[in-house]
Amino acid sequence: MDHFGRQLLEGYLQDGAFGHRQHLHMTWSYLRRGEPEGVLPFLRHVAESHGESEKLNVTMTRFWIGVTAHAVAIDGTGADDFDRLLERAPHLLDKQLPLRHWTREAMFSSEARARWVEPDLRPLPF
């Protein structure tokens, strides 16, 4: 994990939470730095350090990177302020959003955990 990621993680741990909103904030933070490729290693490190590496889902992670990047691109004001982005794109807080594009079986398959799997319900808008 890079220095930036360690700082993010320390902040999240101080707050006592690393849920969906924190995942989005971390993704947005890496996107803002122009480093979307940093998201997956960050999450891999967090999962492994908690003995939960099996929880990492590459398809899910790439979906949230894409949908967050899409929201930032559509609404440039969210590029500088995470809370403003969520105000303008509240769908990002919907944890069920990926299931509009994938069946549960496809999204939570071992294949989706290991690598990108194309949506099996409807194509992505980005």
What would you call the structural class? mainly alpha
Helix content: 55-70%
Radius of gyration from the alpha-carbon trace, in angstroms = 14 Å
Element-by-element helix/strand order: HHHHHHH
Major beta sheet, specifics?
A: none
Q: Report the sheet-strand fraction.
A: under 5%
Spatial shape: globular
Q: What is the count of distinct domains?
A: 1
Number of extended strands: 0
Number of helices: 7
Through-space gap between termini: 28 Å
**Low-confidence runs of at least 5 consecutive residues:** none
Mean pLDDT: 88
What are the SSEs and their pairings?
Layout: H1 3-15, H2 20-32, H3 39-49, H4 58-74, H5 82-88, H6 104-107, H7 110-114
Describe, in plain words, how this protein is organized in 3D.
With 126 residues, this protein is mainly α. The protein has one domain. The longest helix has 17 residues. The radius of gyration is 14 Å and the shape is globular. The protein starts with a helix and ends in a 12-residue tail after the last helix.
Can you give keywords for this protein?
126 residues, mainly alpha, 7 helices, 56% helix
Quick structural overview:
With 126 residues, the chain is an all-alpha fold. The chain has 7 helices and no strands.
